[in-house]
Amino acid sequence: MYRRLSDRRLTEIAANIAQGKQDYQSGNVFRGKVNDAIAKLNQRDRPW
Predict the structure, then answer these.
(1) What is the model's pTM?
(2) Which of 28, 30, 33, 34 is the Cys-Cys partner for 23 at CB 3.0 to 4.6 Å?
(3) CA pair distance 11, 2, nearest whole angstrom
(4) What is the C-alpha R_g of the chain?
């Protein structure tokens, strides 16, 4: 059972890495400090 859980987790990690590479290559990433990311998120379409 432990082996199956370990294999499943490795598969999830590999999928996350592949998605990250794809996002990076397409320019769909944010680079900056945490405060910059929070400020950018706060600037999104606010419902109020």
Answers:
(1) 0.60
(2) 28
(3) 14
(4) 17
